[in-house]
Specification:
Layout (H helix, E strand, L loop, with lengths): L1 H20 L29 H7 L13 H7 L2 H24 L19 E4 L8 E4 L18 E5 L2 E5 L4 E2 L2 E2 L5 E5 L5 E5 L14 E5 L5 E7 L2 E2 L31 E3 L7 E7 L3 E4 L30 E6 L2 E6 L9
Antiparallel strand pairs: 1-2, 3-4, 5-6, 7-8, 9-10, 10-11, 12-13, 13-14, 15-16
Length: 341
């Protein structure tokens, strides 16, 4: 660079010197050639023109003494000091121009320049950082998008998450985090493929709906609610199914209440006279239409439906008498069941 600048300075100086001295032929046709000596601005009228130059010009060559005195004009226009100043100024201007030109040229950089990437529809450009090349990945908005097949998951998979099927889209890790949206983690599946998975374990419960309450279970005591928390949906508050009871609830969780409980045989006691059919009153529970026939009598039945037959008869054991032609027979009353006392 130093040699080139020196050459350019010399060329500029030569050009300015020629321009200052003018054309080698004077205005009156006299050539200033080899051998001419100019001692200073005031000596230009005393040029020593060689005789061989003059012989070649013939009679038309003017005498040097007859040339007009231009010393004052040359002294004013091309004084040596002016020429020197002009040469210096031109050289400085050329150097400045070269320096300015060099400042506009960027030096090569060691780091990789992030030029971005052009991605197809539904994909975005993700910059991992650390001088890694950017790459196209599915738009984070498609994480946990409902799906039926892999075809709608932009290179990912349609998987079952919680209570439905959702897209598990591909992802990548970067210096500032992963390409997954908030509430998701970029983790590898069993096959080693990285994908966005909800940290709550549910695609329907995330940062956007914390505190939401949903019905869960089926019906009856099996119906309950679940709340979206930071770790996913809370356990369903529904109870477990059991045998149907007469209580106004759907105990067996089949959508019906107190069903199949009425009209069944029932009894207050084993005696047929104590039998009836079942009834249901949620406030009172199961009932039976069977009723006692009345006070106990000696008839072989459980008239009071207490589970005992012909019991507590006051007549039994009492003295009784029977008149016959032979006289009066005295005895005690006994209950003969169906035949009576």
């Amino acid at each position: 660079m130093t040699d080139m600048r020196a050459i350019r300075r010399g060329a500029v100086a030569l050009t300015l010197l020629i321009a200052a001295c003018g054309d080698p032929f004077a205005a009156d046709g006299v050539m200033v050639g080899p051998g001419a000596e100019v001692g200073g601005a005031g000596d230009i009228a005393t040029l020593d023109v060689p005789s061989d130059w003059r012989d070649g010009l013939g009679d038309s060559a003017p005498d040097v003494a007859d040339l007009p005195d231009m010393s004052s004009e040359v002294a004013d226009d091309v004084a040596p000091a002016d020429v020197a100043d002009a040469v210096t100024a031109a050289q400085d201007s050329q150097v400045d121009a070269e320096l300015d030109l060099g400042s506009d040229v960027e030096e090569p950089q060691d780091s990789v320049v992030d030029i971005g990437c052009v991605c197809p529809p539904a994909q975005v450009c993700f910059d991992p950082g650390a001088n890694a090349a950017p790459l196209c990945l599915p738009d984070p908005a498609f994480a946990c998008a409902p799906c039926q097949t892999d075809a709608t998951c932009l290179g990912g998979h349609c998987v079952t998450v919680g209570d439905g099927k959702y897209c598990r889209i591909p992802c990548a890790q970067g210096v500032a985090g992963s390409s997954c949206p908030a509430g998701f983690a970029c983790v590898a599946d069993a096959g080693g493929q990285l994908g966005c998975e909800p940290q709550s374990g549910s695609c329907s419960c995330g940062p956007q709906n914390l505190g939401m309450v949903l019905a869960c279970g089926t019906v009856g005591i099996c119906a309950g609610s679940s709340t979206c928390t930071g770790t996913g949906w809370s356990p369903c508050s529904a109870g477990t199914s059991g045998s149907e009871a007469c209580n106004g609830l759907d105990d067996d969780c089949d959508g019906q209440t107190d069903e199949d409980l009425t009209g069944k045989p029932c009894g207050l006691a084993a005696d047929p006279w104590c039998q009836g059919q079942t009834t249901c009153n949620p406030a009172q529970g199961l009932g039976c239409t069977a009723t006692p026939s009345g006070a106990e009598v000696c008839n072989g039945h459980d008239d009071d439906c207490n589970g005992a037959t012909d019991e507590g008869l006051s007549e039994v054991g009492a003295i009784c008498s029977l008149s016959t032609p032979a006289g009066t027979c005295v005895g005690y009353w006994q209950c003969g069941g169906a035949v009576g006392l």
